[in-house]
């Protein structure tokens, strides 16, 4: 499928170009169905009235989650502290920073560069730490591209993203889609940083 090339108005009006019988995907998957329904309810009840954090909290309430995990980049430690403080008013909060267990980059044969340090991010361990803490719902806060993928893959609890990392665009990666200047100057074949 190439839905990005289609005018999606017919699907959003209940007139799909192709009916895949998607309801079958949820048959017998009660947790998935509950996640889907709860997300839809939050959207319907609070459309354009809640910010992302408020939506996350309302979703967690409606799912009856009491234990929330935060998987954060060490570069977002201040933001993680603020997020944890807010969430702790209502939920039991656990967190795991990206450098948990201080695994060296040499242990995974990763490239070493002086400006990023020699300790590797460890998203699989982050997921394990939060799983062992009994987190029912995990929030990603600024993990790197790929590291976030590993976290999503290994987390046993459902995961949502609060902030995506984009050091160049102030953690607002969608800006490249809204700015003609940024799109025109996309680095399609970027030069590696040497110094």
What order do the helices and strands come in, and which of them pair?
Layout: H1 9-12, H2 30-46, H3 52-62, E1 67-72, H4 77-88, E2 92-97, H5 123-132, E3 137-141, H6 147-154, E4 159-163, H7 175-178, H8 180-184
Parallel strand pairs: 1-2, 1-3, 3-4
Keywords:
alpha/beta; four-stranded parallel sheet; 36% helix; 4 strands; 8 helices; Rossmann fold; single chain
Describe what this molecule looks like in 3D.
This protein is α/β, with parallel strands linked by helices and 195 residues long. The protein has 8 helices and 4 strands, in the order αααβαβαβαβαα. It folds into 2 domains: 30-64; 66-186, Rossmann fold, CATH 3.40.50. A 4-stranded parallel β-sheet has the order 2-1-3-4, with helices on both faces. β3 (137-141), α6 and β4 form a beta-alpha-beta unit. α5 packs parallel to α6. The relative contact order is 0.11.
Number of contiguous helices? 8
Q: From N to C, what is the helix and strand string?
A: HHHEHEHEHEHH
The CA-CA distance between the termini, in Å, is: 42 Å
Return the CATH topology of the largest domain.
Rossmann fold
Q: In percent, how much strand structure appears in the residues?
A: 5-15%
Strand arrangement across the biggest beta sheet: 2-1-3-4
What global shape is seen? globular
> Would you identify the regions where 5 or more consecutive residues have pLDDT less than 50?
none
Largest sheet, strands/sense/barrel: 4 strands, parallel
The Rg value, from CA coordinates, equals 19 Å
- CATH architecture tag of the largest domain: 3-Layer(aba) Sandwich
How many individual β-strands?
4
> Helical residue percent?
25-40%
CATH class of the largest domain: Alpha Beta
- Domain count: the total is 2
What structural class do helix, strand and pairing data support?
Answer: alpha/beta
* Average pLDDT metric: 93
């Amino acid at each position: 499928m190439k839905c990005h090339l289609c005018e999606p108005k017919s699907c959003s009006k209940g007139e799909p170009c192709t009916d895949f019988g998607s309801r079958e995907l949820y048959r017998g998957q009660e947790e998935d169905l509950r996640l889907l329904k709860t997300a839809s309810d939050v959207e319907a009840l609070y459309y354009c009235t809640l910010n992302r954090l408020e939506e996350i909290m309302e979703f967690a309430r409606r799912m009856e989650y009491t234990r929330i995990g935060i998987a954060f980049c060490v570069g977002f430690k201040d933001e993680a502290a603020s997020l944890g403080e807010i969430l702790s008013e209502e939920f039991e909060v656990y967190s795991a920073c990206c450098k948990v267990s201080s695994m060296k980059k040499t242990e995974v044969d990763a490239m070493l560069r002086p400006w990023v340090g020699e300790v590797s991010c460890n998203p699989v361990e982050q997921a394990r730490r939060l799983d062992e803490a009994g987190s029912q719902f995990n929030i990603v806060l600024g993990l790197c591209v790929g590291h976030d993928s590993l976290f999503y893959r290994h987390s046993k609890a459902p995961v949502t993203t609060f902030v995506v990392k984009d050091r160049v665009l102030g953690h607002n990666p969608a800006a490249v889609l809204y700015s003609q200047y940024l799109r025109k100057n996309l680095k399609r074949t970027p030069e590696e940083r040497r110094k």
